[in-house]
Amino acid sequence: MSVDWFGYVYAATVGAGGIMGYAKAGSVPSLGAGLAFGALLAYGAHLNSQDPPRPMLQLGTSLFLAGLMGARWNRSGKMMPAGMVCMLSIGALVKNLVSYNRYLPVPTRGP
Description:
One of its GO terms (cellular component) is mitochondrial membrane. By secondary structure, the chain is mainly α.
């Protein structure tokens, strides 16, 4: 399996966003959330780079961030940072669903 470069870039972007939020506004929650979610996404990209890939961590984190930041984007109407993170999260979600659909656990009917 190849390296999940998109996942690593996505993780770095989320982490850098937290650092920028702290640098610009002194927001400690932004720093903590950005670094925590960036670390989760980086580990998810690492799991996606394995053979066989395990996309569930990155899928769950992307889904959560898309919902959270989408709601913030809807409330504020500002593209940065909520809109950008929401769109990146949706992109990561779609990319993971398309790329790793055969590795996702699918519930089956009982006997």
